[in-house]
Amino acid sequence: MQLNKQEICEACGHFMLEWNISSNCTLLKCPQCFHIKRDLELCNAQRREHAWGGSELFDEIRAFLTRRRLNKLLSKNKRLSLLEIGFGSGKILVKFLEKGHKVHGVEADLLEIHIDELLKKYGTLHFGKIENIQLPKEEFDLIYGIHVIEHLDNPAEVFKKCHDALKKEGILYFITPNSTSKGLTIFKDKWWNLEDPTHIRFFSPQSIKIMLNRAGFRKIEIGIPVWDSLTLEINSLLRFLRWNSKEHGVLSKKYAKLVDAFLLPFFIVIRMFYPILSPSLEVIAWKSP
Q: Could you tell me if 91 and 194 are in contact, meaning their C-beta atoms sit under 8 angstroms apart?
């Protein structure tokens, strides 16, 4: 498939260019802010058929590390109102609920996984795309989403909606794949983030900051967390070795999780010395007082 017309970058408005990362994968990349869009017809990248291909153990580790990071941002002596976009099974929200916080969640219901019963009983949950959910004005102290904004149909609309729904000095927190990660350059169409067919865009530090500024946020911090998606390089390597399933991807193959666990310490050391290999961005934005 070839582009019928040149696409405009949704972040900075510059014309996007075709980036042929392999013989069968072409991405659209902005030369100005390095934002990336993905068309599945242009970049199939041996994608899996199902949106979900995770591991409960690794999800537990990610939830623990993310919750620890969020706790550092929150007031410890105050009952807060929190919203998670894409809450999945609710692992993080339940922990906040147990601490006495008021919790809300939005889930597009793509993952077909069990939701914690405590969360269903005491949380305020909405099912559907966040673009279609009406959020109350100035209600939340924290809105966060872990690997969710790369799936959105209209991120600009969602960022503005989040800004309006936050209280003054409220915090917006996202973790999302990094379009400038050296992993994409090294692994090309075998980069594990391309296995998920619902990954339709990748933000750069520049593009996410531009879009959040436009939504009304003024104080924004962008980091590259070495602790997120710890097995991504290993799973990318397994994809390179064609050790993957068409239906559910790398992690559904026998012994894949054992390989991840065995090689993980080695790849953590590599990231410590070569942090630009890290595949994610950590985005923190504060609403002005």
A: no
Cα dihedral across residues 221, 226, 230, 236: positive or negative: positive
Q: Are 211 and 159 within 8 A, CB to CB? A: yes
pLDDT digits (tens, 9 = 90+) for 128-170: 999 999 999 999 999 999 999 999 999 999 999 999 999 999 9
> 13 is written with which tokens?
């408005």
Chain Cα centroid distance, residue 35 = 14
Distance (Å) of CA 85 to CA 4, 121, 156, 167, 240: 34, 18, 15, 17, 32
17-286 adopts what CATH topology?
Rossmann fold (3.40.50)
Dist CA 30 CA 204 (whole Å): 10
> Mind listing the pLDDT tens digit for each residue in 8-65?
999 999 999 999 999 989 999 999 999 999 999 999 999 988 765 555 666 777 888 8
- What global pTM score does this model have? 0.93
